[in-house]
Amino acid sequence: MLTCKQVSRALERGDYAKLPPLSRLALRLHVAMCVVCGGYNRQVMAFYDAVRAFLKAEDADLGNARVRLPDATRVRLKETLRGTSPGR
Amino acid sequence: MTDKPQPSPDDWVDLYGDYLYRYALLRLKNPATAEDAVQETFLAAVKGQDRFDGRTDIKFWLRGILRNKIVDHIRKAVREDVVEDTEAQGILDSFWFKHSGVAAIRPAPWQFDPYRAFEKTEFWEIFRSCLDQLREPLRTAFTLKMLEDQSSEEICKILGVSPNNLWVMMHRARSLLKTCLEKKWAKRA
């Protein structure tokens, strides 16, 4: 049985969705039933879910061309890279 | 080594320059700094191209390098202005926090169903604008922790704060984001 503190610590360490399935299930069960930390930690979980979906939406949006690397920088970068050898 | 032919470094700028620049700009907010991060990424990639194992698309390999460069820039930019926070100390000293690891004041339920909102493109524009409105160092803490997946230990080092202090910062960031999301999402409806 997990304690509230263990659940909070686990959620603080990182995205619960990346945990192994059994640990994830244990966390979700605790949070679903617990009157002490459930309301709070449900919100922490919602933020992880939101951020995961946000990053996916953001990555899709990165493909569109509204913002472009300035041309001058592009030229400068190409010159710099031509003068750079691998492994140095 | 590689499963499929990968573009040569000569083509990287044309193929991935815009993508990497946009990513850097989203995180760093400053065009000049974003350009620097992209340049550092390409240079590091050219020098270390023998470390690319071809298992992923080169775009994602470059993005991985860029993410490290972004964290480096954030590390350099962080000002040491973390203030003593008496209200935060109150939360941390409370019996409730010591016992359960959560703040005693329960978050109110969402005023809308967040999971339904995740399906809408407009929601992410609002999420982005609420994130950008967070005051520092909350925005940086949230970005490093949630978007850039840095460990709490690393973020504490970067921001020069204790783990408890970081916990309070994340708690504040979530509360402020939630308030902002509710306000803007309700206004839209």
Molecular structure report:
The complex is a heterodimer of chains A (88) and B (189). Chain A has one domain (4-82). In chain A, 68% of the residues lie in helices and 0% in strands. Chain A contains 4 helices and no strands. Chain A has helices at 4-13, 21-33, 38-62, 71-82. Chain B is mainly alpha-helical. Chain B folds into 2 domains: 9-77, Rna Polymerase Sigma Factor, Chain: A; 86-188, Winged helix-like DNA-binding domain superfamily/Winged helix DNA-binding domain (Arc Repressor Mutant, subunit A, Orthogonal Bundle). Chain B contains 10 helices and no strands. Chain B has helices spanning 9-28, 31-47, 58-77, 86-93, 95-100, 114-117, 121-133, 138-147, 152-159, 163-188. The longest helix of chain B has 26 residues, at 163-188. The mean pLDDT of chain B is 88.
Largest sheet: number of strands, sense, barrel closure of chain A: none
Write the element-wise H/E pattern of chain B from the N-terminal end onward: HHHHHHHHHH
Mean pLDDT of chain B: 88
Q: What gyration radius of chain A follows from the Cα positions, in whole Å?
A: 22 Å
Q: Mind telling me the C-alpha Rg of chain B?
A: 20 Å
Give the CATH class of the largest domain in chain B. Answer: Mainly Alpha
| Most strands sheet of chain B | none
Per the CATH scheme, the topology name of the largest domain in chain B is: Arc Repressor Mutant, subunit A
Structural class of chain B: mainly alpha
* Range of helix content of chain A: 55-70%
What is shown here, in short?
The complex is a heterodimer of chains A (88) and B (189). Chain A is mostly helical and 88 residues long. Chain A is built from four helices and no strands.
Task: Considering the chains and any ligands shown, give keywords for the structure.
heterodimer, A: 88 residues, mainly alpha, 4 helices, elongated, B: 189 residues, Rna Polymerase Sigma Factor, Chain: A, Arc Repressor Mutant, subunit A, 2 domains, 10 helices
